[in-house]
Amino acid sequence: MAAAAVIVVLAGCAPQVAPATSTPTPVVTSAAPTPKPTAASVFIPGGTAAANKVFFDKVNAQTIQAAGGSPDGPAFITALRTAGFPVDVMEVTQDITTVGVKADSIQFSVKMADACLVGQWGAVVGYVSVTAPVLSTGKCLIGETRTIDF
């Protein structure tokens, strides 16, 4: 009895086959277009923060992995510079506190034409990023930042 009930239930789940149509489907044969670089694969100079965010995140994820999960500010800045982001529009916070211990988290940013790409890394929170408006100071980060001389 139970087997019959299962068969009835499963019969209701069987896919319905559409009736064949007499109109033939045209076949198009042409070479596939060469894919264009996407926002995820390259830095777009002069592009918006939104257009570059996926790439920004990709570079930062690679930096975290390359550093064994313990990158510092210079590691992020160096990787972003190597990836094409201009260093003169970057900011990074200190990664050592005033008492000489490793900071719980660091923030770093790249000011784009329209907004800021802001990343944060910390062992407790992990990596997060946002696009944010440029501050009235013309900068992306609030407070004291580290001089990028590396």
Layout: helices, strands, pairs:
Layout: H1 2-13, H2 49-66, H3 73-82, E1 90-92, E2 105-111, E3 116-122, E4 126-132
Antiparallel strand pairs: 1-2, 2-3, 3-4
Describe the protein.
The structure is a single chain. By secondary structure, this protein is an alpha+beta fold. It has one domain (43-150). Helix content is 27%, strand content 16%. It has 3 helices and 4 strands, in the order αααββββ. A 4-stranded antiparallel beta sheet has the order 1-2-3-4, covered by helices on one side. A hairpin with a 3-residue loop joins strand 3 and strand 4 (126-132). Helix 2 (49-66) packs across helix 3. The longest helix is centred in the middle third of the chain and has 18 residues, at 49-66.
Nutshell version of this structure?
The chain has helices at residues 2-13, 49-66, 73-82; strands at residues 90-92, 105-111, 116-122, 126-132. With 150 residues, it is an alpha+beta fold.
Q: How many independent structural domains? A: 1
> Judging from the principal axes of the Cα atoms, what is the shape?
globular
Task: From the alpha carbons, calculate the radius of gyration and give it in angstroms.
Answer: 26 Å
Biggest sheet, spatial arrangement of strands: 1-2-3-4
Features:
27% helix; globular; 150 residues; 3 helices; four-stranded antiparallel sheet; alpha+beta
